[in-house]
Amino acid sequence: MAIDVRIPTILRTYTDGAKAVEGSGGTLDELFTDLESRHPGIRARLVDGGSLRRFVNVYLNDEDVRFLDGIGTPVGDGDSVTILPAVAGGSA
Amino acid sequence: MRFGSLAESVGNTPLVHLRRLSPSEDVRIWAKLEDRNPTGSVKDRPALHMIERAEAEGRLRPGATILEPTSGNTGISLAMAARLKGYRMVCVMPENTSAERRELLAMWGAEVIPSPAAGGSNTAVRVAKELAAEHPDWVMLYQYGNPDNAGAHYAGTGPEILADLPTVTHFVAGLGTTGTLMGVGRYLREKVPGVAVVAAEPRYDDLVYGLRNLDEGFVPELYDAEVLTTRYSVGSADAVRRTRELLREEGVFAGVSTGAVLHAALGLARKAAKAGERADVVFVVADGGWKYLSTGIYSAESDEAAVELLQGQLWA
């Protein structure tokens, strides 16, 4: 139980308002399934048909998992996972 | 250097080796100083290019009104060009951007329509699209989806970097409209086998993301993930810390988004040094620190105090 998962405000209804929760699993997919067991409904907000939803960004230790192995990305103890909505940003 | 007009002086910015921040002689970090453009940001390149192309294609005619969603820099660049060329300029800008940006836009004669802080630039884009529908005669150049935005960097920034540093191995820039990364990235990929194109994406505090709905997210039309090697999310704390470090160690006075980009650049340099590989890492200084002076982050006693000062502000 030692993967730190940071939850965006919009999904905290599933975590009783918690900004961060802990989870476990060998891949992100397994981690999300583990989260679902304690926070029912959260998985469907993140994953659709075996891949991340279009406007959901997930970062493993600050790196976008779409450039790793998506939801198949291996994770482990001590990792930090951040979930964020996709945004327009930059010095635009 | 001599130019026929201010507009012609855009680009050809310095590329500076940052010795103190570079891990070694084999792993070097280089800053592309885009704050040296006429209005002080990298956005002069796409703004002028988008206007010139729109004029050439007849989409922009004398006396026209230009509309653009912007968190500041593009609006400032467009406003400068609009004044010189006689267009009216209307910007849609999130209300939680710095006072300097509003002042600069007013100075160049632009009208600012504030959009709600919640949702940041996403909301500004939505509001601008609504206004465009109400005013079909206004011309929205739309930096998030205009290929001429990336085109400016493909034609200018990219070739400049390669000419100054043919040994470039990594290019790092901020991810906003994605124009810089798409344009420079495509150019370098064509010319430099194995070059890494890396995005640093700003991560704000909860106040900014607060009400954002996961189903109404926004991905700029210009974005093509194939161009990128990878993408990092950099939070306010790291961005502020690096912005101050850049000033302290190298004397480069940059905006906060540059701190986020430097953070990613330093991470890549460290990785290369550890692996015993040679690297020339180029990162973009998108603007100077002037527009963020009022936040107090540059003179704050500590990094922690500086981070506190930036709470709830859009800094990129």
From TrEMBL, chain A:
It holds the Pfam family ThiS. InterPro entries: Beta-grasp_dom_sf, Mopterin_synth/thiamin_S_b, Sulfur_Carrier/Prot_Modifier, ThiS/MoaD-like. It comes from the Bacteria. SUPFAM superfamilies: MoaD/ThiS. PANTHER family: SULFUR CARRIER PROTEIN CYSO, SULFUR CARRIER PROTEIN SLR0821-RELATED. This is Molybdopterin synthase sulfur carrier subunit. The lineage of its organism: Bacteria, Bacillati, Actinomycetota, Actinomycetes, Kitasatosporales.
Automatic annotation (TrEMBL), chain B:
Pfam families: PALP. It catalyses: [CysO sulfur-carrier protein]-C-terminal-Gly-aminoethanethioate + O-phospho-L-serine + H(+) = [CysO sulfur-carrier protein]-Gly-NH-CH2-C(O)-S-L-Cys + phosphate. Pyridoxal 5'-phosphate binds at N73, G176, T177, T178, G179, T180, S257. Residues 8-287 form the Tryptophan synthase beta chain-like PALP domain. SUPFAM superfamilies: Tryptophan synthase beta subunit-like PLP-dependent enzymes. Signal peptide: none annotated. Keywords: Amino-acid biosynthesis, Cysteine biosynthesis, Pyridoxal phosphate, Transferase. It is an enzyme of class 2 (transferase). One of its GO terms (biological process) is cysteine biosynthetic process from serine. Pathway: Amino-acid biosynthesis. The modification N6-(pyridoxal phosphate)lysine is found at K43. Its EC number is 2.5.1.113. Its cofactor is pyridoxal 5'-phosphate. It comes from the Bacteria. NCBIfam families: cysKM. Homodimer. Belongs to the cysteine synthase/cystathionine beta-synthase family. This is O-phosphoserine sulfhydrylase. The gene is cysM.
